[in-house]
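Practice problem: Disease resistance protein RPP13
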Amino acid sequence: MAYAALISLQNTISLSVNDNLKQIDDELLIHLAYQIYNLQTFLRRNLLGSEDRQIREAVRRLEDAFESHVPYQIRLQSEIIDGDDEMSYPLTQSHQDLGLEVIVEEINLFIKTVKEIKKQLHNSSLSEEDNDAAVSSGVDHHHDLDHLDEKKSTIFGLDDDILSLKDMLTGDMSGLLLIPIFGMAGIGKTTLAKRVYGDPDIVSHFECRVFVSIGPKYRLRDILVRILAQILHPGTDATHEESEEELLVHLHNCLKRKRYLIVLDDIWDEKVWDMLNDCLPDDKMGSRIILTSRIEGVALSISSESGKIFHKMRFLNEEESWHLLRANVFGEENLCPHDLEKAGRRRLPRSAKDFLSLSLRSPTTYLKLRRISSIGRK
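Answer key — structure tokens:
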């Protein structure tokens, strides 16, 4: 099964990232992690035909590249050092680069294959979507709001970020303020935006609030419909009959003379902001727009229009990371046996690649600690 193969691939990558692949670009690994996660999300809701075999073959090739790289380095190192004493040399950069080139090539091939498969699946489903004009372009009006109503969980290390962001949102500046938030995948950008969005002070400060998730694949019309669905009175459902140009005008008129807050979450392309920018009025009412992105170039490009305002997420320190891991494993009661704390702290991320590795295998990490915990209690 393709889904099981992807889980196996996640574990293989996470075991390789920390110690052996430090030269591989973070952006490439993050993009790979996103493609795996995105494909898993799709597979949870859809059955595959011939694509199942394609995915499993792509996974096999990439796993082989990861698994062969580390043994190759270890074997070569051993052969060099354990050979003639006169030939005891460390593993050279050229040897390392040889294995890394293969991995990078296979990562890019895997990403390309996944995109092609998703395109095939998307095209095959277009006819079904076109048969239902009322749900045109697959827009879910409630999708953006559902996750905002979840029970608030404990967050760690974001207190300063929340205070800073709240100050920018409620400050004295009357003009429209654009606030880009940048950070790698999983570091807490969306959590920060959601927490500030739902803060009672922010709720009472703005007359109109909107939260939409964008993602790497989007259509302007979908975004406009989803924004208007949160602004218009419940039961108003005329937007699906409007053209893209009419929706832009409609949105502008709805926001006119209002103090509004719009959160555009997970932006991968600055073009989406360029398309929305002209329809968002600046009536000197203190309106604010938050944009989150995992791509620094996108965030920097947008920040150039906002007077260089730019919020970069920091990594959690060791104590914050421990509290987060402990809460996820043992619940917010933090009933962690004292003898497990040392083992747990050894699993904390200490760099960007460590963080990515923990994100890739976090369910496995939690299960392992839970198993250790259950054994320790017996």
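Discussion: The longest strand covers residues 208-215. Students who identified this feature from the tokens alone can consider the problem solved.
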